Amino acid sequence: MPSALTLANLLDRLARGERLLLPSARAARELRAAFDAHQRMLGLAVWEPAPALSWQQWTGSLWSELIVTGADTRLLLNPAQEHSLWREIIAEDNTHSTLGSPDSLADLARSAWALAAAYHATSRLRGTALNYDCRIFSEWADAFNKRCAKEGYLSPALLDDALRQHIATETVATPEKLQLAGFGDLTPAQQSLLAALRERGCAVEFHNLAAEPTAAPLRASVIAETPRAEIELAARWIRNYLEEHRDAPPRVAILVPHLAEERAELDSVLREILAPELQSIATDLSSAPWEISAGAPLASLAMISAALELAQWTRRPLSIERVGSLLLSPFLGHATERDALARFDANTLRRRKLLRPEIDIAELLRLLLSRDPDAPQLAAWLREVHALAQRAASIRTATYAEWMEHIRALLVAAQWPITKPEKLTAARFEATRAWDAVLDLVSTLDFAGRRVPFEAALDALELQAQSTLFAPPATHAPVQVISVAEAEGCLFDAVVFLHVTDANWPAPERANPLLPWPLQSSLAMPGTDAARTTDRARTFTAALLARTGAALFTSAAEDNDGKLRPSPLLAEFALTQLSAEQLCPSPAQVPHIEPELIADNAPLPPLMNSEVRGGAAVLQAQAACGFRAFAEFRLHSSSPETRDLGLDARDSGNHVHLALEAFWKQVKSQKQLRNTTPERIESILRNCIDTALERHFTPRGPWDTAYLDLQRRRLHKLLQQWLELELERGPFEVIDAERKTKMPVGPLVLDLRLDRMDRVGDEAGADIVLVDYKTGSASPKKWEGLRPDEPQLPLYALYPSRGTVKAVTFANVRAGKDMKWSGYQAEDGILPKARDNRRDLNLLIEEWRATLTQLAQDFADGKAFVAPKDYPKTCEHCDQRLLCRLDPATLHQQEGEEEESDG
Fold it and tell me: Angle at the Cα of 632 (from 630 to 634), degrees rounded to 5?
């Protein structure tokens, strides 16, 4: 019958130099930390390390002794080497193509091989393979076994069996005594190794773990309403438990069945309840009272992702977005360059008009040096990286170790991770160590003696960075959030087991898909018998209760998928069923504090200058909402401009303006347009389009040329159709286009640019038509009312002109049926006849004068009331919603109501 050891018993045995084996590396690490703390408490300055090891650490040390003594020369494969070997075997077999990628199949094959080896079943794979998948795996396993025997490799899965053989032949020293504490089920391979030790006279002892005796240990279960409420309830109980034991801080474990999926929510709740003072996003969490063991892939860390992407960029172009993120990365280049690079990214890189989704380092350097006067300093690290990449590009193949050293050199040139090692945070310092370990791990792939191209080495590095889980360095916080498996062999003062439902506990086990079912069933492998799974969960629960002072099992009544039921296993233990109120009484009500109301009626200061930048947009914003005009044109508040690849709507509109401006400078009237040959018009139009596009573009390479040709054809077809529409008007002569001027409107002086002014009637007449080009939707209705949506053309009408305004019109230069003239005329024959487009323009212009003058006066007077013209439509795309006092929740609510009504 195994004895039960408390933490004090374990520490005593370690102090006597007795070796203890624990089920996991975590359990061994925690016991060593407890031993070190105990030695410090005794006042010791130095002491021997605690001989507490996990099973894998112990067997690894035995194998190292064999290698040192020369008793065995086989190479014990590390995970990267074994994965590489499996992948190579699978890639050589064409029959795997329908099963999955070589990397995923290599991982699956490794797990199946490890399971078969643990149950002494590797020699039975071929004879028991009954289906297609099992037969293929048995062939892979034969090839893997033969390759290992030929090359002198040893799979980690066969280490226990190899040690057993050495113990039988006495080529490895046999310890006098071996103690195992906290183990559950042992695999047949482990049992065989221990049996061989016993045959050689080693005393193998098993010990259970036990908590220190307490007067009334808590053994309880509780059901909360929802999973979120369950986590919050557990966190409140833990906070109370920690406060009750403040004199001797206890160690508390939170067991979570699916820890990786709930990491973010657990961190949020623990931060809110256990340490609300850490809510700030900038707070250093190294002193947090909790520690979550679930790690994220190393490649997902920002600093590691930057390193990988930089290495990728040296060999192939990256997307504009990824290059921008590299330039702004806090882990590359000089920290003092960040603002300048941000300006380059926003004002140059993102504003490139050509549809080039990717860019390489050489092109970026050319662009940087040609556009930014500060570029020689800014580009120093990029030039050094590029020089290294160019030298390496001439090397076709090299060893993995040589490529890893090349990547290290690239990162040194890029000054990764910028901050000096002594100034890195603990988490980032550990991340750099983990990165170095991964580079070293990939270097060990030279065990096969192959030389590979850079791309293959980089793929191997990315794979290892993705498969390596990184957790911040252990802080030995009082609250440990761990998975259920990690709790085996660990001692805690209190344990909270979350989500103990019938779906989570016993934890579902599945048979391996590559191993024959009859073989797995006959050997009682995991996932083959629900009764054995339940027995293991029952044994684990009993051991957990025995080695902890307080145990709380929680579950939720329902989740988003429906009602939940507690695990039936809980009924087998003497647990006290508590309500949420009994476990954690509701805190006292927070006293109500009356708000203090402060009148917001202080007048705004007067304008510093009557000349306001923004032109008609000032009055357009004032008409939409006084606060928007105030924020945009007096506070100069704006959101970062987003850019799409290639030409956006504004770019396309500008090219229409430029092309038509150039066209009417050559073809000055409708008469000339009508009398010029189609061939000549075609030639003029093409030249004008080329002029408009070349004003913004300098194509480099076939991709750019092809994109510009596409834009040229689109613009040519659009304007060709528009010129046909110009012939449907009455006679006209273009007398002005794209004129920039300043115009007084009330107390303001605005910058204007008149799109186009035509003279109509006979040549001696003084009648004019004002034209506003629009490539988007536009209607004369947007000129109406005291708060017009489009005040630009009414402003044109107020400009002191050289004649009488006979028509004001939008020129809707749009493809399809929306291409038309839409406006008002004083008499028929000036514009194409349309329903109800006759107006008294003199009266209309005076109305516009009064409306626009009042809007200008309101802006100058600082009338910045939050009063959207058409709520919530006016607010949908407003950049000032973070500043104004409208409740965004109300806006979202109204948007939802509109969607429901539409349905």
Answer: 50
Task: In whole angstroms, give the CA distance from residue 632 to residue 617.
Answer: 10
Q: How far is CA 364 from CA 319, 326, 328, 350, 707, in A?
A: 12, 12, 14, 12, 19
Phi-psi region of 360 (alpha: psi -120 to 50; beta: other; left: phi over 0): beta
In this structure, what DSSP letter does residue 342 have?
H
Query: How open is the CA angle 396-397-401, to the nearest 5 degrees?
Result: 140
DSSP string, 209-230: E-PPP-SS--EEEEEESSHHHH
For 272, the token pair is 């809110």
d(C-alpha 520, C-alpha 119), whole Å: 9
Give whole-number Cα distances, 794 to 451, 842, 849, in Å.
73, 12, 8
pLDDT of residue 870: 87
Q: Could you give the residue ranges of the DSSP H alpha helices within 727-784?
A: none
| pLDDT at site 901 | 38
Q: Can you list the residues of the chain whose pLDDT is less than 70? A: 1, 95-100, 215, 279-286, 353-356, 371-378, 419-423, 587-590, 641-645, 762-765, 802, 885, 887-903
Which residue's structure tokens are 């909360």? 224
Pair of tokens at residue 263: 């990491």
- pTM of the shown model: 0.77
> Tokens representing 321?
């977005």
What's the half-sphere exposure (Cβ side, CA atoms, 13 Å) at 743?
Answer: 25
Task: Give the strand pairing for 820-825 and 804-812.
Answer: antiparallel
Q: Which of 526, 391, 708 is nearest to 112 (CA)?
A: 526
What does the pLDDT look like over 725-763, one tens digit per residue?
999 888 999 998 988 888 899 999 999 888 999 998 766
Helix (H, G, I), strand (E, B) or coil at 158: helix
Instruction: Give the model confidence (pLDDT) of 64-82 as tens digits.
Output: 999 999 999 999 999 999 9
Check: CB of residue 447 under 8 Å from CB of residue 80.
no
DSSP code for 602? P
Residue 472: what residue type? P
CA–CA distances in Å: residue 251 to residues 165, 230, 478? 42, 21, 5
DSSP collapsed to 3 states, 468-520: CEECCCCCCCCEEEEECHHHCCCCEEEEEECCCECCCCCCCCCCCCCCCHHHH
- pLDDT tens digits for range 179-209: 999 998 899 999 999 999 999 999 999 999 9
Residue 305 contacts residue 299 (beta carbons within 8 Å): yes
